[in-house]
Amino acid sequence: MQDWERDEIRSANDGVKAAMEQVQADFDRELGEAGEVYRRLQAMKIKATSPNNLARVTVNSSGVVTEIVIADDAYRRSTPQKLTEDLNAAIHGAAQAAAQARAQVVAPIQSIVDSMPDVSEFVPGAPSLRDLQAQLSGAVDPPEQSQQSR
User: Does this model's pTM top 0.85?
Assistant: First the structure.
């Protein structure tokens, strides 16, 4: 192999190395942001009140009901059937609001995932941004903070 061929190979390797270092730096920065997104999702509480103010419902970021409060005078002002309808309306409204709020909180992670290659495609064993985004959009287990030795 001639010197000019070695130089071209070294130059190409240096370019790939620089690109990978930039991807890793972006990933590390965004992983830190992902932890904050997860904390915001965990702390999220969405409240909705029924149309007739007979019930108030609180849901978490996944839309799971965490609290139901029935008005003290609900049984005097309503029938069991109407109270059931009001409660269902409040739950449905809270779940929809939670989905919208979760989408807004997770949007930065989604834009990151959409705009860059997944590190796991280049570095075997590296965490996957797409997996992280899927975890956060479903508000499931927290992202793993694994660091690759460099």
Answer: no
